[in-house]
């Protein structure tokens, strides 16, 4: 088995090619495997029947109007690809997000995609499996990125919303379209019971979450009920863009992202370090639970994470800098 960086990972086993979230044009020679519906992971989604979970397919239909064919599988499915098998496993990042485990005679290679190793209000934690080789995301793969407990962040968001309403403002969130928006809506539904008004784009994604069993309650901007709620100001707004919210109240904007741990967002009234990714500790825990002999890191702090994993006894390198095909046969590394 060999692996190389092509914007994502290209895995070669005998004459079979499998491309995981790869951004580069591979001229239809590889089976494309999409880990989840975020924009930076679906660059080549229109190429030759990519493999994805049924939830990801439905999300892409809602977001991108995807109508073409795809190899759609349930989470947990095993797909035979030439002499290898690909197993899909929950990644805990957003609805339908999956890790892919490539199983062949030389061992198992796990491609994590974006992962979260803790339960949230809308997702279950990523599952580890024993893997001989692993490609792990490194978005927050640097020791200063340790997030507070999610419940602590949740309670700070709840308090901020209550404070806004108490002082006569309307609390509004700019949030990622898929995942974070739904988590914020669920948080307000469960902890506060205040009505939530959402943008049309967020509503379309919420419909997919609801289709797969997540209860979400909200009003879509533009409806008579939503207009009335915004006028009264007794609601929370969640959108994927900052817009002019039609209300006479002062609108206070917040953003919820892991980057809030380190960076200032000066145009916002409040920031909350709520991430759909594993933090540094979570990434280390996930790698140690999978116990691979060789780890490649990808995206974000890939160099830093690879160096730290090396110090912890793994053979590790940043996939981006590993360059051309790297040997992964037993005994070579
Ligand atoms: Zn993502």
Structural overview:
The protein is α/β, with parallel strands linked by helices and 333 residues long. The chain folds into two domains: 2-145 and 277-327, 4-Layer Sandwich (Metallo-beta-lactamase, Chain A); 150-272, Rossmann fold (3-Layer(aba) Sandwich), CATH 3.40.50. 26% of the residues lie in helices and 26% in strands. The protein is built from eight helices and 20 strands. Strands 7-8-9-10-11-18-19 form a seven-stranded mixed β-sheet. A six-stranded parallel β-sheet has the order 14-13-15-12-16-17, sandwiched between helices. Strands 4-3-2-1-20 form a five-stranded mixed β-sheet. The longest helix has 17 residues, at 150-166. The protein starts with a strand and ends in a 6-residue tail after the last strand. Zinc ion is lined by residues 36, 38, 93, 114. Residues 36, 38, 93, 114 line the site of zinc ion. One of its GO terms (molecular function) is RNA endonuclease activity.
Structural key phrases:
333 residues, alpha/beta, Metallo-beta-lactamase, Chain A, Rossmann fold, 7-stranded mixed beta sheet, 8 helices, disordered C terminus, binds zinc ion, Metallo-B-lactamas, MBL, RibonucZ/Hydroxyglut_hydro, Metallo-beta-lactamase domain-containing protein, RNA endonuclease activity
Tell me the count of domains: 2
Can you tell me the CATH topology of the largest domain? Metallo-beta-lactamase, Chain A
E-strand count: 20
Which strand order spans the largest sheet, edge to edge or round the barrel? 7-8-9-10-11-18-19
If you compute it from the alpha carbons, what radius of gyration comes out, rounded to the nearest whole angstrom? Answer: 21 Å
Low-confidence blocks of residues:
329-333
CATH superfamily of the largest domain: Ribonuclease Z/Hydroxyacylglutathione hydrolase-like
- Terminal-residue CA separation: 12 Å
Let me know the average pLDDT: 92
CATH class of the largest domain: Alpha Beta
From the coordinates shown, what is the CATH architecture of the largest domain?
4-Layer Sandwich
The helix tally amounts to: 8
Note the beta-strand portion. Answer: 25-35%
